[in-house]
Known about the structure:
The chain contains 13 helices and 3 strands. The chain starts with a helix and ends with a helix. It has a 3-stranded mixed beta sheet, sandwiched between helices. It is mostly helical.
Amino acid sequence: MKKLLIQGTVSIVLFFATWLALMQINWVKVFKIQKVTDHTERKLGDLFWKLYHKSEKESNNPFIINSVDSIVTKICDANKIQRQTIKVHVIMKDEINAFALPNGHLIVYSGLILNSANPEELTGVICHEIAHIQLNHVMKKLIKEIGLSTLVSITTGSRGSTASVKKIAEMLSSTAFDRGLEKEADMKAVDYLIKAKINPNPFANFLYKLSDEKGNIPQYLNWMSTHPDSKERASYIVEYCKKNKVTHQIVLSEKTFEKLKEQLNAE
């Protein structure tokens, strides 16, 4: 009986201690900051994409767009991701690269598609970038390296010069996330693939392949420069895959994938 009374007293004390701690938090301020961050992300996404759209050639080929969109849609549907939050842009550029901008903009270079041996390799990279978006890594990186106040100033025009916007946009396409965020995005990408019943091993193979080719065509391997330690990453992806056996389905047919590459080469 005495033991029960002590346990009950401890529970009550812990409850009120937790309640008092929570009462000290300015929830209005917390929600206000989140609102500011969400608004800032939307504005930054628009600014960055507007800049890329002016300086790069985006494909308007319906077959190319629909093919890449079908991959993204399959991943989103299988993982309960709101499809409209991911805005896909295929840029005609030889570099092997893909990256995420704020507000769900996903940039995929034609060089990445053309250098993917199969749709599963391409899908693995796309999943990795979707993971960065869904895990809010893009804004975390910007706030850490630029600062929220500076980002807000840029979106309100007080410090939003074209040069500063361009510099930040280039940082997102050419510098790496820290190791912890990269691994988190890798694991989430594999989870996306597994839930969509897509073989995740080609994603690891793609990392191995690019690592081996890094010395041959470094000017085109932008995705490698922003995603270091690829062999190590490939190894832990393979190990993770061994624990998750799934029935694999086709992402794109071989005929469709070859036509996609033909259309890109013809652009």
